[in-house]
């Protein structure tokens, strides 16, 4: 059996696709399995990062091997994903805290001002 | 003059780079269009971002990105194991308060994003005076250890990078 470079490439591509698919599946499964909103947030913010990452790496290898122009779109998708995933999670968490959680359920802050969604920022700029 | 034209030189550079990556073909026309965009976008968004972010040691950024990428892979495996195998009533979720030494808004944003992307933690909120972060931890028996790890592993590096 000859191990030419194309075969190795195809094995790599399939491996990354399977790994990515598995993590994406686990992330979605976590949504069903975990108990409350804050716990559920953990599954999609992480498992899907590697899930999509695996698929993107597979795509890069595939187009790199097939001799066409190397595509950089995958890199961009990764960057945009890393920028947007934490923001979405943060907004969902904040919305959840506003509607479902009292300030007394949270641990106190370390400073003299409370958490941002329950309190206004300090009027005195020296406290910022 | 140059400062008026390019209020955020790093942002301008990023925009040219991202534009070239988006069109996926480096030609003179595309480069010119990218440079044009790198004028317009920072100029239009400047009112929302009056202070320039300063990077003290930009090279440390690469180390930071490498550490975070590695942690993301570890985080994925850890969270996957918790989701798949841990009985529901054994998952001990807790709130953790992380006091901040960082002061620049950009640095705090990067730290908050990093916390969300890495092992079992999601940033939920900032305190009103930007003095600490509220972090939700998926599973931990020792909230103090989580806090110390965040401070040591990420905040210390960001402090060197930004201040």
Task: Describe this protein with a few key phrases.
heterodimer, A: mainly alpha, 67% helix, B: 163 residues, mainly alpha, Alpha-Beta Plaits, 2 domains, 3 strands, 59% helix, 11% strand
Helix content of chain B: 55-70%
**What's the N-to-C terminus distance of chain A?**
68 Å
The second-level CATH architecture of the largest domain in chain B is: 2-Layer Sandwich
Number of helices of chain A: 3
Main beta-sheet annotation of chain B: 3 strands, antiparallel
Strand residue content of chain A: under 5%
* Helical run tally of chain B: 6
The overall average pLDDT of chain B, rounded, is 83
| Class from helix and strand fractions of chain B | mainly alpha
CATH topology of the largest domain in chain B: Alpha-Beta Plaits
Q: What is the ordering of alpha helices and beta strands of chain B?
A: HHHHEHEEH
> Roughly what percent helix of chain A?
55-70%
The stretches of 5 or more residues of chain B where confidence is low (pLDDT under 50) are none
Report on this model:
The complex is a heterodimer of chains A (128) and B (163). Chain A is an all-alpha fold. Chain A has one domain (5-102). Chain A contains three helices and no strands. The radius of gyration of chain A is 22 Å and the shape is elongated. The model of chain A has no long low-confidence stretch (mean pLDDT 81). By secondary structure, chain B is mainly α. Chain B has two domains: 2-48, no CATH class; 60-162, Alpha-Beta Plaits. Chain B has a three-stranded antiparallel beta sheet. In chain B, a hairpin with a 5-residue loop joins strand 2 (121-126) and strand 3 (132-137). In chain B, helix 4 (60-85) runs antiparallel to helix 6 and helix 5 crosses helix 6. Chain B is elongated and about 60 Å long. In chain B, 30% of the residues are buried. The model of chain B has no long low-confidence stretch (mean pLDDT 83). At the A-B interface, helix 1, helix 2 and helix 3 of A face helix 2, helix 4, strand 1, helix 5 and strand 2 of B.
